[in-house]
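ping. complex inputs:
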Amino acid sequence: MLELKNIRKTFHKGRQSVVAVDDVSLNIQQGEILGLVGESGCGKSTLSRIVMQLLLPDSGSIHLGETNLSALPRSAIRRHRLDFQMVFQDPYASLNPRLTIFSTLGEALQQRHPGLKSTALRQRVGELLETVGLSQRLMQRYPHEFSGGQRQRIAIARALAPNPRIIIADEPVSALDVSIQSQILNLLRRLQADLGLTMLFISHDLAVVRYLADRIAVMHAGKIVETGDAEEVFNHPQQAYTKQLLASVPMLPATAANV
Amino acid sequence: MPALLEIQDLKVHFHTRDGVVKAVDSVSLKVEPGEVVGIVGESGSGKSVTAYSLLGLIPMPPGRIEGGRALFQGTDLLRLNERELNAFRGRKISMIFQDPMTSLNPYLRVSTQLVEPLAIHEKLRGKAALHRAIDALESVGIDDAATRIHNYPHEFSGGMRQRVMIAMALITKPDLLIADEPTTALDVTVQKQVLEVIRKLQRDTGTAVIFITHDLAVVHDMCNTVNVLYAGRVIESAPASQLIHHPLHAYTRGLYRSNPSAHKKGEDLYSIPGLPPDLARLPTGCAFRPRNTLGDASLCLTDRQPKLVEITPGHFVQNCPGCLAKQPSI
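pong. complex structure:
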């Protein structure tokens, strides 16, 4: 559904230049969760910004379904931007503290459906909140009245509001505590099953990616070094870098859960 | 042999407009010489406040140490004044923090910062101090330490900065190192290297370590004994190998169960429902009751706080019938 072809992006600083994304090709199928793993500085955030059309690649193209986004003029890209929604790591920074949850979600809904007003709008906001496991009674509250996990649910609801075709989640559970992290992972998995959500899931936490993603792409120094079925990559990593990455993660034995 | 550090019934409360926040409400734990003791818990469970109170780092007000003792080599740290504490800080007890960038002074060369503890605690200056500092940098695995020591903190990467912090903390050969989430901000491969440095130095020098983290896997990698904190109380404490195979408290069991690597794809992750309690409005009785789904919440204590009891040698758990109910058969 989403296809990246030979994306390349170089940043220049004075005389130095850094190749942040080096000839990356990737595709994500409809209804699939693709996990993108790699360490800080490997280029995964740059790549996600390129997918979001927030950054223009130096070369290469992005295709959404039949449309070649890279060939479109800026104004047309703007219209397509609703098709891409993002969930960020820090739910404290990504919600406007001055807006009620109703305003935040209402605004996101109206982007796609400008005609949605009053009762109908309130009803849709209520439905969205229920979808992410929050009570609709909470819609007149402000972000500071919510916990980190609840805010992340709101951020997910906002991403879902304009019916995007793909959600890009950049470390969405890294800032959350273990017990809350599992609640959010369950929510994402349920949304994938119920809504057929397509997602690019960026994380450095390999246990989380393994659990959630259908396929995995491993990124290192601007390049995708390995892609494959999630279990396959974990059980039989092919590349030296993937092996090294997997060996670095302290893992609890699987039997630890049988309690 | 007496314990190096024994915390008995520590209570640290914060007096805020919202009421009294009981950040630490009865924490007892022991650290033997040369031992690595883990403190795990979620944000707000009281793990950092426990550590900070040992070195007098709790802002007072609003904080107040309401009770308890912290006997370090026989001295109660909680009763010392600022001047007396300075004899312990950085000399017998050192601390490293989560973010190495904010704990190093960006204006000073690493060399200046590394020799400072030597000047203060050992009156060692000049060339001799610099040599000790270079040795310390080498021991944490920084190549070309004699040159690198003259660099500024921004010239080091995150993992290297944390190594500098470790070198600085251990340069006075303290008896106890408190490491507060030292690898949380680092990448996994760097985390592995930093954990190895801590482990190696700990083994070489015999320094005891209190290792604070929210990551159960890291705890098992590093620690001999693990203390699980919930709502400002130790709810379970056991040797690491014992805890991983036979966690008893419903909260500890829930933590292990919610670990994603133990789940099959497509299977719901076990998750502990709800949120940790508001520390300003702790219920009387068992604080975990509203979230207890692995035990039997109807049996949880409601009239009094469950006490920590020793179930098998070295394995302590809060004696709440509801949280201990429904143990899997072994």
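The first strand of chain A starts at residue 2 and ends at 13.
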